[in-house]
């Protein structure tokens, strides 16, 4: 008799159960995403640790995003007149300070892009103006703080600001200019934008007509890469052609980055990274996956968070999650996936990845750890000491007429000695 | 009572021989002792332009200690008791509206590489840096407003790179054509705000008047002389010299033929406190006999001693006057800490941040009152330790 239960009751219980179980899983995914990001704020260029006893993680991360073109928009909309803008509430852009905080962004690389059409004209002066705008912006708001090192990112309690030059046309074929940008705080340079420089090839064809016969990196282009290694400036290969990427990976002794590119195998757009390169990036760099809808979906009409997450899954499958970061390209790209319309939406991406089974370690890597590791390696590759050594090498080179005084120095410095 | 007249005569001769001789010797010695104590700060040298012309800035091909083809090399600077040198990062006027900015960056880079490459040299960016340095302190001066391509942002970035004066024009007008246009006035104000010395050498009379009118900080003439002594357009007329006195301006003296007369004249018109030295070695083509290169500065000091200048006046000319002006200009900066990247290995702060604030507590308080709360907080957190150490 006890075997007979009220079937209606059972059914009712089942329904209830089936209702509540998924509901509590969804809620906990979002919560998990937020807790993770409070702990590990995104670096779209920046990262920061702080101690916090949250339910899931012991470490706190700051989300770091590696590419944002707000500063270009400020030039276009306001001619860099920051006094006319309230960056906390700015409406006309994907980015404002409130949204960055809502998106748990802890560090941001600000791109100081100047138009390709300025190549061989006033690109240098324009770049200085954009760098100046970033500095004024970061000095003007309590929420922001300019930093130039991995440690600076770790230590900052605010949204850390870093500077990235986007396009070799900004240096006007001058290594001295590159060095001065470094002195001003620039910490990465994208070798090309959508135009060839006299020394490097872009992945974009037909947009501009500069130096059409240049392929990969010329001899001078190789010197640029070596000089960036010596200085400790991150080499960014987004926007560059396949041959440029191969050449740079060949020459660079330090890890490289793609500040805003996605997976070619998922969408075969020239801005994306093919599988063989992804494999070469293992232990030698990071790809900061970008949200530009055009490069994610290859013309598919519906582009959403899932489309983006497919890129993450693919790269993890091919090369592991340790070489993945995030480079949103907000205020640079025109269209974004549904659900990721502006910089406050990053948690939705993390939520989706959690749902797809990514674990916390992997996600902390994506959010900040991977980038920090790469940045530190690039810094360690040339510490202040080795820079000083380099100058000592120059002195030795100058004092001895022959180069023999240099031969006893470390290998790479000998090369630098010759190039001066 | 009777002395040997021959002996007396002999003594007299001997005496008359030795007295002038020992006076001369002591002038030279006095000059050298003075300069050992108060090494010269020179306001203008164009070696870096010569390095570009002769060696395309390839420092590995040059030994700056022994370089023969220029007025300047390190050995001569030391022989001349030069303690600090402003290196001009001049680029040709013909680059205006073309690639002047990039060329200027290349010259700044050359100065930095040069100063990093030799133990005898050390890049500094403050008056305190000059005072503290045990080497030849290097500073950077932009020569000609055409270098900023009418961009205040570019001016600010030069400041961040370590540039501490800008000559408003070289031998070409900038888009600030007569005197100073409205934008030119903004340039002067921005230089005040940043704490960059305004250099009026090469500028026209009306530009000088306009700048003196607007600038709240002392100004300099990094390499000019007295118009009344030699009426060359590069020189400073008496009325300006007098205005300089009331405005506490510093004029560096650049010499031509009767060079020492310039010193005397300026001292007479306006006093010695506004005088310094700006040789223009490796910039100008010809120099007075006896002053052919940077090792000869002691001869100038010797001559001034002979003309009755006293040690205080000469120490002023050698360095104190400039340091006073530089500190006054620095003291007017109250706002905006800028990040400055530098290859200086002594900077251990992760930001390579150099703070240009007065070392006196009362000036700091003034700054804090005037600054926004954000900047005030930053000032306190970044500066307070330094202030404590001062006390």
List keywords for this structure.
protease (chain A), 420 residues, homodimer, 16 helices, hydrolase (chain A), alpha/beta
3D architecture notes:
The structure is a homodimer. Chain A is α/β, with parallel strands linked by helices and 420 residues long. Chain A is built from 16 helices and ten strands. In chain A, strands 1, 2, 3, 4, 5, 6, 7, 8, 9 and 10 form a ten-stranded parallel beta sheet that branches. In chain A, helix 5 links the parallel strand 4 (144-146) and strand 5 (159-166). In chain A, 55% of the residues are buried. Chain A binds chain B through residues 80, 122, 124-125, 128-129, 131-133, 135, 139-142, 146-149, 151-152, 155, 172, 174, 176-177, 179-180, 182-185, 384-385, 387-388, 391-392, 394-395, 397-399, 417, 420, and chain B through 57-65, 99, 101-102, 105-106, 108-110, 112-113, 116-118, 149, 151, 153-154, 156-157, 160-161, 336-343, 345, 350-352, 374.
Layout of helices and strands, plus pairs?
Two copies of one chain form a homodimer.
Chain A: H1 7-39, E1 40-44, E2 61-68, H2 70-78, H3 97-102, E3 105-111, H4 123-140, E4 144-146, H5 150-155, E5 159-166, H6 175-184, E6 186-190, H7 219-231, E7 234-236, H8 242-251, E8 256-261, H9 275-281, E9 285-289, H10 293-297, H11 305-319, E10 324-326, H12 346-355, H13 360-381, H14 384-399, H15 404-407, H16 411-419
Parallel strand pairs in A: 1-2, 1-3, 2-3, 3-5, 4-5, 5-6, 6-7, 7-8, 8-9, 9-10
Helix pairs in contact in A: 1-12, 6-7, 11-12, 14-16
Number of helical segments of chain A?
Answer: 16
What is the makeup of the main sheet of chain A? 10 strands, parallel
Shape of chain A: globular
Largest interface: A-B, 44 and 43 residues
**Low-confidence segments of chain A:** 45-62, 384-420
Mean pLDDT of chain A: 84
Number of strands of chain A: 10
Subcellular location (chain B): Membrane
GO molecular function (chain B): metal ion binding; metallodipeptidase activity
Catalytic activity (chain B): an L-aminoacyl-L-amino acid + H2O = 2 an L-alpha-amino acid
Membrane topology (chain B): Lipid-anchor; GPI-anchor
């Amino acid at each position: 008799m006890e075997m007979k239960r009220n079937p209606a009751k059972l059914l009712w219980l089942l329904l209830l159960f089936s209702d509540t179980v998924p509901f509590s899983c969804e809620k906990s995914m979002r919560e998990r995403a937020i807790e993770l990001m409070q702990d590990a704020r995104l670096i779209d260029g920046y990262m920061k640790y702080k101690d916090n006893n949250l339910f899931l993680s012991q470490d706190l991360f700051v989300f770091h995003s590696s590419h944002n073109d707000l500063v270009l928009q400020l030039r276009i909309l306001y001619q860099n007149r920051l006094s006319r803008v309230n960056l906390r509430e700015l409406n006309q852009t994907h980015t404002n300070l409130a949204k960055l905080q809502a998106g748990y962004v802890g560090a941001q690389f600000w791109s100081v892009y100047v138009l390709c059409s300025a190549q061989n004209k006033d690109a240098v002066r324009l770049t200085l103006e954009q760098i100046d705008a970033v500095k004024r912006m970061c000095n003007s708001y309590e929420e922001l703080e300019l930093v130039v090192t991995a440690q600076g990112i770790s230590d900052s309690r605010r949204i850390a600001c870093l500077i990235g030059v986007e396009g070799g046309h900004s240096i006007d074929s001058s290594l001295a200019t590159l060095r001065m940008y470094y002195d001003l705080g620039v910490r990465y340079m994208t070798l090309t934008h959508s135009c060839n420089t006299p020394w490097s090839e872009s992945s974009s064809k037909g947009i501009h007509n500069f130096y059409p016969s240049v392929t990969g990196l010329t001899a001078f282009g190789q010197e640029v890469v070596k000089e960036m290694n010596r200085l400790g400036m991150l080499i960014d290969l987004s926007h560059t052609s396949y041959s440029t990427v191969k050449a740079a990976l060949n020459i660079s002794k330090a890890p490289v980055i793609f500040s805003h590119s996605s997976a070619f195998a998922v969408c075969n757009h020239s801005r994306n990274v093919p599988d063989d390169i992804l494999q070469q990036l293992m232990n030698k760099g990071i790809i900061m996956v970008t949200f530009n809808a055009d490069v994610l979906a290859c013309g598919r009409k519906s582009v959403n968070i899932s489309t983006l997450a497919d890129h993450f899954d693919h790269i993890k499958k091919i090369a592991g999650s340790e070489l993945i970061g995030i480079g949103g390209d907000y205020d640079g790209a025109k269209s974004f996936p549904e659900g990721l319309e502006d910089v406050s939406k990053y948690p939705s991406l993390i939520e989706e990845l959690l749902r797809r089974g990514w674990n916390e370690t992997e996600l902390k890597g994506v959010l900040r750890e991977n980038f920090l590791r790469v940045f530190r390696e690039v810094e360690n590759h040339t510490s202040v000491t080795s820079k000083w050594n380099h100058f000592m090498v120059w002195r030795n080179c100058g004092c001895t007429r022959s180069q023999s005084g240099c031969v006893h120095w470390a290998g790479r410095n000998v090369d630098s000695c010759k190039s001066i």
